[in-house]
Amino acid sequence: MNLAAIRATIELAKRNEAETAQLQRALALQIPLLHSAIKLPAQQPVAALLAFVTTYIDQVPNCLEAALAISGAARIDTHVKPLLQLAGDYFRRPEELVDVGLDELMYEAYLAHRLMEEVNDYYRASVGMPLVPVDLTVANLIGHHLIGEPFANELDEAVLFSVEQLVHRQPRADAPALQHSGNYPDDRWPCLTRHLNVDLQLSGF
Length: 205
Description:
By secondary structure, this protein is an all-alpha fold. The chain has helices spanning about 5-20, 20-30, 45-75, 75-90, 100-125, 135-145, 150-165, 175-180; strands at about 40, 200. It has eight helices and two strands, in the order ααβααααααβ. Strands 1-2 form a two-stranded antiparallel ribbon. The protein is globular and about 45 Å long.
């Protein structure tokens, strides 16, 4: 998997956004329509939401890199790589980018993060630990709402189909192998929304 190409794709899209502000304008129009459970700061809410989406996209190659390292150390990489490759394949390569911006990469990031969330849930149910030590639940719920229905539901269905075809055929890892494979508890991997001034009150969603 070419993580450098994924990061290059993201950087090109961020430069496109800096020049066009396309996503920023779209988010400004969306803010009055956001679900009341999504909490933004009173000051500069558009900037906060843009920072969330940008970080959400940026974290895709970081999560993939961590999953590759952890699964390799736990000796389950042969079985995990097809899923991670699928998540990486959602991203366009730099040479395929013309006018593609962060708004389109948000869809691709959602697919990748949702797939990794499902993989994490599988390993958590199997051995009591997720594969990658990052909480994607809240970020993915916000991403789902930003993308909107019915398209976000279609993306979810594509992810669930892929997981059904791949992950449930994999052998189970054991918790000690995962626990000692990647310096597991790490402040690098908090809930994705914790420091971004964007949050979700799940009871109201």
